[in-house]
Amino acid sequence: MPQAPRQDSNTAPTDEELRTLDAHWRAANYLAAGQIYLLANPLLTEPLRAEHIKPRLLGHWGTSPGLNLVHTHLNRVIRNRGLDALCIWGPGHGGPSVLANSWLEGSYTEKYPDVTRDAQGMELLMRQFSFPGGVPSHVAPEVPGSIHEGGELGYSLAHAYGAALDNPGLLVTCVIGDGEAETGPLAGSWHANKFLDPVHDGAVLPILHLNGYKIANPTVLSRLPEDELDALLRGYGHEPLHVTGDDPAEVHRAMARAMDTALDRITEAQRAAREGGATERPRWPVIVLRTPKGWTGPAEVDGAPVEGTWRSHQVPLSGVRDNPEHLRQLEAWLRSYRPEELFDAEGRPVADVLACVPEGTRRLGATPHANGGLLVRDLPIPSLNDFAVPVDKPGTTTHEPTRVLGDLLARVMRDTHTRRDFRLVGPDETASNRLQAVFDASGKTWQAGTLPVDEHLDRHGRVMEILSEHLCQGWLEGYLLTGRHGLFSCYEAFVHIVDSMVNQHIKWLRTSRRLPWRAPIASLNYLLTSHVWRQDHNGFSHQDPGFVDHVLNKSPEVVRVYLPPDANTLLSVADHALRSRDYVNVIVAGKQPCFDWLSMDEARVHCARGAGIWDWAGTEDGLSEPDVVLACAGDVPTQEVLAAAHLLRRHLPELAVRVVNVVDLARLLPREEHPHGMNDFEYDGLFTTDKPVIFAYHGYPWLIHRLAYRRTGHRNLHVRGYKEAGTTTTPFDMVVRNDLDRYRLVMDVIDRVPGLAVRATAVRQRMADARTRHHAWIREHGTDLPEVAEWSWNA
């Protein structure tokens, strides 16, 4: 059983320790302000002049002093207690602070040797901030010690809990800005403490930073009476500790006391669970830090109050290059930190400034937990042959693909029982998505109360369900970024809730790939099921396949989209995704019974190709080009294409039909646009240059046109897919309503193959009549036509 990390009680800091803490804090404040303003003269060795100032002033000062205070005091407890710690900076726009602190502790110079820890390096540190060719203003991947960009607010606390899961020796501190605290995702994240296992997980210490204002308005929580705020936080399961003030000496003393009290309580809770067998859910501490916005900056500018108001949010003095009074105020502000006491003549931080800084990998900018690729291990994925379904003949047997995948995931969960580095997350849908086999290997993590009627709840479980897609996504991102593996299973229509979150993660991965010191992490894997074509019973609200469109707009070196048509191809795709690094993999697969088309060996080969001809399904002789190509992507479209091919084989046996199945959607893109894309020679060989291509696609049809618009044969491409014609109806009626059904596909072939419109008029009429019979049948019987419901490839 994991032991609680050493977090022994410490006596109150001495006056000497408080003096050095203040020196560190002032140095960080000086560097943060300097990054916003200075091009040159970093140590103010000469009077400040306009040419020393950046032409464009960008950055966020308002939150920076508070972040610097937290960083300084984290240094103290990490050093004194020998902690392994990670900090999530929710106000990520306070990038100057985290950059300043990583430069002070030396971790920044270790990653960027040209930014030396002296006057020359200080000048470069300041110049590069929010400057062309430099670094972003946020706590981006370029910042050592960061796993959270913070440009989009709301996700910090979820990331913090994800980082703490299965990290029993780690303290994860999370600074939450009071603006961020107003977002829905952050509000939901307060419930994550009901899922934190004090035995196998680390601890999360939230620090709610109430500096009072957003860009232009007061923040809600900062205006609540203290007793009302305390009631809210206690209702979330926390015990608040308050640090309030604007006198640095008093705030340092109060912050040190609060940090020691919080860590003592965390130690006590972990020890009680790990050594004493306590099972009661702890009331974890939360620090409420109230300091002025823009603390220690200009109190007043042009007669208007700035410090402690929304005016200090970004750049308190905006006219420095043109306004002599602003320039004078800036110089006075910077000199108020007494840089001559903080840095020696060469610009190196003096001993007092560094007295609180931990050593080695305990520095916040050097922790390997913020560079998860250094810690990640390959998953023990078993042989797919152990789970493959037998396929003697295509299209004669059926399986539920996700149920088959569930058996594989259960084995992975079982084989990682000791190492605890794999989690399955989802919004209350594991069993609904047919993945319940995993419960044989791990229960659902749960620290709140239980009742006899509950099933599969487990204090130490690694299946995580909460009805918040935001929290599921945030947990998994934090888990992956700190070196572990996972899978997010979700209803297809509702994964859109995290559109913006996956966008941010993709940007993070794209940037990280360009940083040689960031090691690749395990991919973010989505399994989207309960999809549009099998949500006939839930209706229109549950029918939306557009997440794929959203993802394929993003960085091509990062995103991958797979539509396996049966159980064995799903196994093959999942095996690839779980082994991969630095990708976002989107897998769309059904949970309802689906025909088995390919054996395991065939599935491996087909998935490796990404797109290929199914010879057994077509009628071309191989000696000449086909008359028409029937293409498909997705399980239901594949079934409808094969049913259409079956009808063509029977009614128009002289027609040469080629059937092409696409698993990897990016294969349709040109090679120069995506690493998986086909060159023109490959694409033309598969789809021809001048023959009609009838493409049945799982999602919105215009995506296929967008992917293939530059291809030679694009003018011959006709795509059928979902076109927002949804309702509560039968499964086959869904495809009929969207003109994706087998009869419509046959009609499309007749309409588009030259000469068939006249020769096959009777066949086309028969197909149209079948659609008419379908409409009448379902309204009388409530079920699909027997010829559809009982169809199989070899019928």
From TrEMBL:
Belongs to the XFP family. Residues 591-793 form the Xylulose 5-phosphate/Fructose 6-phosphate phosphoketolase C-terminal domain. InterPro entries: Phosphoketolase, THDP-binding, Transketo_C/PFOR_II, Xul5P/Fru6P_PKetolase, Xul5P/Fru6P_PKetolase_C, Xul5P/Fru6P_PKetolase_CS, Xul5P/Fru6P_PKetolase_N, Xul5P/Fru6P_PKetolase_ThDP_BS. It comes from Streptomyces djakartensis. The keyword Flavoprotein does not apply. This is Probable phosphoketolase. Its cofactor is thiamine diphosphate. Its EC number is 4.1.2.-. Keywords: Lyase, Thiamine pyrophosphate. Residues 14-374 form the Xylulose 5-phosphate/Fructose 6-phosphate phosphoketolase N-terminal domain.
